[in-house]
Amino acid sequence: MGCRGLWNLRVNGQWYRSCHPRGRISSPDHPITVKTIKQLCDAPDKLDGWEKAPFPGPLDSDFDWVYTVDLEVRTLTVSFWDSAGGNLKPVAVRLDLATVCQASTLSIDDLRQLPRLWPMEDHNKASEPESRGMVPGQLHLDFGLPTPLNEVQARFFIDCIYPWRYYIDDPLTWHYQSPVFNLMSIALLRLAAWDLEVSFDCDVELPIRFYSIPSWSYPRDNIYWFHGFLVILHGNIESQAMISSAVMKAQPYIENPASQGRDVRMIIISPNHVAFAELSNNTLSCTRNLVLLSDLSATQCSPGFRALSRILTSDCWQKSKMDRETWQHKIPFEMLQLIMQKLEPRDAVAFSQASFTAERCYYASLPQLGDMGVRTSPLLVPCCGRRGGLEEGGIVCSTCYAWMHSDCIDGQGQAFIDQYVCANCQTGESSAGHHPGGIQRDSRRKRRPGCQVRLEGSSKLLQVRLLKPAHLRPSLRFFRPDLSGVPPELITYTIRFNGTFSGLAYGLDDEH
Ligand SMILES: [Zn+2]
Ligand SMILES: [Zn+2]
Fold it and tell me: DSSP readout, 182-239?
């Protein structure tokens, strides 16, 4: 009694889901659960109350059970929270549909005893590196100093992971072969390249909950071009050999006549890591892997995203792009900036991609946010948040790419020849891996401080909105009809990917 959850169903190659508005669901040991499964098996075309979905729904933190009936492979997967080992984590067990249909109910105790299903680990085992004799050289990238734009991108990153954390925390939805991985990868790339639209249309569906489905378009392929880089999605890039095998997978793209003779720069993304590789004069070199997603990613910007946003918004990896400029019109920078500001968001992105001069102009300020300025950079300069003084006295951690003032760290951390490792990285604090349920565990009940900005001369806080504005929340009006003392929490900007709401909404608050 009183259970919450949702149903997923795959039939004829299409996913469907069914969930009660408040998430009510029967428990496995209630006869109606098995009865529902039997009905689906007997009449797979009777889908009243089911809605089409691009992929199965995840185990929300408020859920007890998620049932995934797959009529293609005739299995039932039951997902639930397991507290073994002290930490709550989502787990899944799989049963044969024929066996389920013979029973009258499912025993909860039996379910908890069954071996766990880990699609991610299964895939990792299946994709053991193939030895092709290709030993890549080391690729050294200097990401340079972070810009104010990068700080806002870092904020977007943690604020994007937060609402969609259920999908990333559930091993059934977060693995190489899950479409959710393709979908979130393009979202992270778009945030890192500011390839997004800042919209003033604030009529969006909030909060993001179990019924929300991220629905922006995404490349179905695991290899594609993005802003001049070849993106390769791969199951696991924990070792250099695995990174090489990811590059091998992209051979047909690299050997394409269009890219002949050109250096190919590659961004390799796995469910947890990112790495960068370059093919130049038939020589392959690559970086080590950087953590892209960890348990901390809803509260701290990951090293992988720090690197990704630098690469996609600066010349740090492609220093000689200007000589490839074919656009011959000489327009003063200020004029170009004015044009950029007047363009529709999508046109501004397109313009920046059409010309290297325009691209440089696009990334020189905060595109689409008017004359907003960023006052502090706590996500990228965690010592004190001040961006000033880094040119002269800044030091970057070679592990997490956080910048610090040498005065601020006061002897903490350790310098190795020309490399510095910050105190957090030395203790392993900032290099947490990603564990099922980990993002929810780490971000639970943590305040989400906004980004300190300046707009039209006044200091404001760019604050993520997780709920609708106060006057649109019926439950709030019920208790306080005049909404006295309730912060209005208006939404000023929503972030979209090709017109589709990304889950990111922001408002401007006064600082207290
Ligand atoms: Zn500092
Ligand atoms: Zn560090």
Answer: HHHHHHHHHHHTT-SEEE-------S--TT--------SSSEEEETTEEEEE-S--SS
Q: How far apart are CA 310 and CA 2, in angstroms?
A: 48
Are β-strands 75-82 and 273-280 bridged in parallel, bridged antiparallel, or unpaired?
unpaired
Question: Ligand 1 centroid vs 384 CA: distance in angstroms?
Answer: 4
Residues with CB under 5 A from ligand 2 (ion): 397, 399-400, 422, 425
3-class SS of residue 414: strand
Q: Which helix (H) or strand (E) holds 20?
A: none
- N-terminal to C-terminal alpha carbon distance within the chain: 45
In whole angstroms, give the CA distance from residue 243 to residue 248. Answer: 9
Q: How confident is the model at residue 441 (pLDDT cuts 50, 70, 90)?
A: very high
Cα–chain center distance at 420:
28
What is the rounded distance in angstroms from the CA atom of residue 276 to the CA atom of residue 60? 33
CA distance 456 to 459: 9
Beta bridge partners of 498: none
What is the distance between the alpha carbons of residues 294 and 359, in angstroms, rounded to a whole number?
31
Using a CB cutoff of 5 Å, list residues around ligand 1, an ion.
Answer: 383-384, 405, 408
Closest ligand relative to 302 C-alpha: 2
DSSP 381: S
Tokens of 233: 């999605």
Alpha-carbon gap, residue 286 to 89, rounded angstroms: 34
User: Which sign, positive or negative, has the C-alpha torsion 349, 352, 355, 356?
Assistant: negative
| Cα 57 to chain centroid, rounded | 17
Cα 428 to ligand 1 centroid, rounded to whole Å? 21
Q: Which ligand is nearest to the CA of 397?
A: 2
For residue 300, give both structure tokens. Answer: 């701290």
CA atoms within 13 Å, Cβ hemisphere of 250: 28
Residues 6+ apart with CB under 8 A from 415: 421
Give the alpha-carbon dihedral of 478, 484, 486, 489, to 10 degrees: 100
268 Cα: distance to centroid of ligand 1 (angstroms): 32
Cα 387 to averaged position of ligand 1 atoms, centre (Å): 8
User: How do residues 339-364 score in pLDDT, each as one tens digit?
Assistant: 888 899 999 999 998 888 889 899 99
Write the single-letter amino acid at 443.
S
Q: What pLDDT digit, counting tens, does each position of 32-90 carry?
A: 999 999 999 999 999 999 999 999 999 999 999 999 999 999 999 999 999 887 888 99
Largest Cα span, the chain: 77
DSSP class of 257: G
Using alpha carbons, select from 305, 307, 313 the residue that is nearest to residue 352: 313
Q: How far is residue 105's CA from residue 120's CA, in Å, rounded to a whole number?
A: 30
Ligand 1: distance of its center to the CA of 405 in Å? 4
Tokens of 43: 């009449």
Interatomic CA distance for residues 493 and 54, integer angstroms: 27
